[in-house]
Every structure is written in structure tokens, then in C-alpha cells.
Amino acid sequence: FAMDELDGRLRIATSTGHVPDPNVSNSLAVLRQQGVELITQGLVSGFAPGEDIRSVRFQGEAAYVVTFKKTDPLWAFDLSDPTNPRITGELHIPGFSTYMHRMDAGHLLTIGYDANDHGDFAYFDGVLLQIFDVSDPAAPALVQKHKIGTRGSSSEALTNHLAFTYAADRNLLAIPMTICEGGGDGTYGTNMTFSGLMVFGVDAEKGFTELGRV
User: Fold this and answer.
1) Percent of the chain beyond pLDDT 90?
2) How far apart are CA 186 and CA 172, in angstroms?
């Protein structure tokens, strides 16, 4: 999802290096074909210094990039002018999203990790479902949040989008989950309370409602 094609142009978000390398850098480029080569038509570079990219979502002439070291900056980009892509807004919150799904024209539905900030670093702490309002590209906002379990909890959907099933016509989200309780602030939860499929009702105004487990 870090690459996307629109109107014959390739858009790609890239990290050079990885945390904890202090020299890690990020860029979003718009490329077009010239003969047998791809040339850079537009470029935004140097955003989120010291962090690396964790998820990307292109949506027409917009793009959203999540980077992480201690907190989760959600960056919004305007790609309407391919020769001059630009950052329009950003939002900093704890944790980070590993996958972003287009819920509707103005909202992103995401899965990721919560985090406990400890100054120079942060501990992962539980799985997060979140809804972001991106209708105003200058001011992306977190509107709903639901935490599942504690440190040690996991989901295949965190790293495999095929495990993330969202039925927009029914406002339903289904994800496989392994829930561990009793952890937090760097300590892994040792009490596994559930392993299976969870189904949620999803609403930008009402949030997440757990409907059932298998």
C-alpha cells in the first residue's frame, strides 16, 4: 500500500533506514514514465525525521502516511498537483496504525498498536481499532478508539490486510484476535483470555460495538 498509480503516475512513500537509526528519513514521490525510465515529477521529503513509515493509504488525490517512534503521527498529503505534492495536516497520538482502510470518503478505519510513552522510547500495549476523520485535510482528527487486550495481544490483521474484513454496507468489521490480559508498560500479559474471530459494529459517531466472538 506504499505504492499507488493514478493517471499514469506512480506515487510511492519510502523510508530510508529504520528506527532507532537517528538518520532515518521519509519521502513521498510522484513518478512518471519517460521512455524506459521513471523520473521524479514531484517530491515531499524530510518529514517525520527519526521515525519510519508504518502504514500508507492513497485515496485519489490524497494520501495518508503513519510514521512511528514514540507517538503516531498521521500525515495528510495533497497530491492534486503531481509536480507539487504537499503536506496539508498532521495529527500526533500515542501508538501507531499498521493498516489503514477507507471507511468512506471522509473517514479512515485503522488497526494498530497502542503505546506507553517513556520519553526516548515507547512500549507497545494492546491492539487498537481507530476511526479518523479526514474530511478536513488540514486537520485530521481521531474520532473513535477501541483498545483490545494488553501487551502481548496480537492479530493477523496487523500485518496481513487479507485478515481485515470490513463490510461497508453493514458497518461490520471482522478480525482474528489473540487477547492477552495482565500486561502493560513493558510487561507482557500472560493470561490469554481469547483466541478466535471478533466481530464489531463500526460507526464514526457511535464508535465500536463488539457483536460477537467465535
Assistant:
1) 80
2) 32
| Three-state secondary structure readout of 128-168 | EEEEEECCCCCCCEEEEEEEECCCCCECHHHCCHHHCEEEC
**Range in 9-23, 37-51, 117-131 the model is least confident about:** 117-131
Q: Is the dihedral of CA 38, 39, 44, 47 positive or negative?
A: positive
Rounded Cα distance between 155 and 142, Å, is 22
How many Å apart are CA 36 and CA 38, to the nearest integer? 7
Residue type (1 letter), 171: N
Cell numbers for 60: 485519489
Chain position carrying cell 513521498: 28
Nearest Cα neighbor of 198 from 169, 164, 158 is 164
Q: Are 196 and 214 within 8 A, CB to CB? A: yes
Whole-model pTM: value is: 0.92
Residue 77: Cβ-neighbour burial (10 angstroms; 0-12, 13-18, 19+): buried
Per-residue pLDDT of 86-123, as tens digits, reads: 999 999 888 889 999 999 999 999 999 998 765 566 67
Please, are residues 173 and 146 in contact by the beta-carbon 8 Å criterion? no
